[in-house]
Amino acid sequence: MASQREATVLLPETALTDFCRCVFSQLGLPKDDAAVVADSLIDADLCGIASHGLVRLPIYVERLKAGVVAARPEMHIVRESAATAVLDGGNGMGQVVSRRAMEIALEKGRDQPAFISVRASNHNGALGYWAAQAPVHDCIGIAFTIGGINHMAPWGGAEAMLGNNPFAIALPAGEEAPVILDMACSVAARGKVNVAADRGEAIPEGWCLDSDGLPTTDPLAALQGFVLPLAGHKGYAMTVAFGLLSSMLSGAAFGTEVTHLYDDLKNPQNVGHLFGVLPVTAFEDLAIYRRRMDKAITEIRGVRRAPGVAGITLPGERERLLRTERRQNGVPLARGTVAGLRQVAAELGIETL
User: Fold this and answer.
1) 250: alpha, beta or left, given left = phi > 0 and alpha = psi -120 to 50?
2) Helix or strand or coil: residue 167?
3) How far is CA 228 from CA 110, 198, 210, in A?
4) Which is it for strands 84-88 and 114-121: parallel, antiparallel or unpaired?
5) What is the DSSP letter of 228?
6) Which letter does DSSP use for residue 203 in this model?
7) Among the listed residues 190, 261, 182, 181, the one whose alpha carbon sits nearest the alpha carbon of residue 228
8) pLDDT (tens digit, 9 = 90+) per residue, 77-104?
9) Residues 169 and 181: beta-carbon distance below 8 Å
């Protein structure tokens, strides 16, 4: 297997941004929509979440070209109250639909908690990107989504019926940076298996089973099999609950209704999301909240460290530090990912990376 250094290519953020925006604009997305999709993907790679970064661009392109994702969706609210809404995403790009859903949530959530349920959307990238829209408005952001591939079996089952159904929570602080949790309900996101395949690397033991239900470290065999739930039956229970939250309030796909992101280029996916906004001032004085959040963060970071540990980090801190470093020094992409981007460029007749 190739070393990580040999398996990656370092590229500047600006070049990646220009390339991605050009790709999506050429496929019919309005300028602002192309920008938000590009920013979502590149931010994931900046933060070290390669599973939801530019490795996803080729399948986004395929689905747009096949007509199973709308480049210019007609989004509309189908039901609403003062603090809730159901948004039909018009089969638009998941990032475009998610941006609109979070806008509605923040509009409704100025003085009260607000939740927006979404249907007729698509894969929307790293979920923490969306929860993180809330802290700048002194709100806690909450996000759930259902996976675009069934690649997890129910606990004790031998048939894929569930996605890994990630969730994210973003909490504002005071002087400290927001605390941002973004995780799937599987041991590892399936996208990490894709990245390992692109790099020619083995995956760790305990991530996946092959199609026969046997443990594997071969990413190609894993892509034909199942991801394993985090913490066994507990992760399975979480993925069921989060999948139901993401789909049952809006009519989005669940279970056997879920089509395959990569293998089905004929049918829209009807991906569901649920976004929530909790305005701090609806619960607590803002100054008190900020002071207590900063105190909590400082106390956690200041605990006595185990031998060999350089420092304690909080959820989202590693990603924030990586983003800063990679903006200065470049974004490492798997060579297989870069090859996929260059193939897209050749197919669309645009300048390659």
Assistant:
1) alpha
2) strand
3) 39, 21, 11
4) parallel
5) P
6) P
7) 190
8) 999 999 999 999 999 999 999 999 999 9
9) yes
Q: At what angle are helices 31-46 and 94-108 packed, to 10 degrees? A: 90
**DSSP E strand boundaries for 246-323:** 271-279
Closest by CA to 189, choosing from 145, 159, 233, 154, is 145
Q: How many residues does the chain have?
A: 353
CA dist., res. 155 & res. 111, Å (int)? 41
Q: What's the distance, Cα to Cα, between the start and end of the chain in Å? A: 25
Give the helix/strand (H/E) hosting 105. Answer: helix 94-108
For 217-237, the pLDDT digits (tens) are 999 999 888 899 999 999 999
What does the CA dihedral 226, 229, 233, 237 come to, rounded to 10 degrees? Answer: -100
What are the chain's domains? 8-66+330-353 (1.10.1530.10), 73-186+234-301 (3.30.1370.60), 187-228 (3.30.60.50)
